[in-house]
Predict the 3D structure of the following.
Amino acid sequence: MLEHVSYIHSPESPTLMLLHGYGSNKDDLFGLQPFFPEMNFICFQAPKSLDQGGFAWYDIDWTNGTKIIDPISVKDVSRSVMNDLDAWKKKKKITGKTIVGGFSQGGILSMSIYSLNYDADAFVVMSGYMLPEWAEMDWQKTTPLLQTHGMADPVIPFEWAEAGALKLGMNSNYSFKSYQMGHHLNAQCITDVQLFLEAI
């Protein structure tokens, strides 16, 4: 099982899994746990160790200054996370609802897990986007999904998030929130996630 940190409120409480971004670690998003005090909370650590420190869920090819991501490797690690989350819930006898979320690379991974029809009750994609290779997939789903993004994001351009929103909009339970911020989370974004989860 992937390394992780977790907090258990009760087996019947909803569980929020958050996946960190490129170059970060399991402790990063675990810092958000106090904002969701009545939920179980788990943050896995990505399996790939980076030379510059931190971890990654999958490799990024920066050849010729372009960002190339292998969609197959994204799906593979998505299935690994899905299996580990199921195993953790079974071990801890968790029976409540499940919410899958992530930030940046973890947000992309969350969207990948969403596309694989993982049995979760909701998804939260923060500063992530839909890979171009996924555009022709069937996105007519009903599971609630909240996508948040900064309009001044210098890492994952806002336009990339908007492009995927056109497809995700086929889900009647999809919502997109934008903010005057860069590649991070601000107070309004966290509040919107709280309100979204309260309605699940």
Helices lie at 26-30, 71-91, 105-115, 158-168, 187-198. The mean pLDDT is 95.
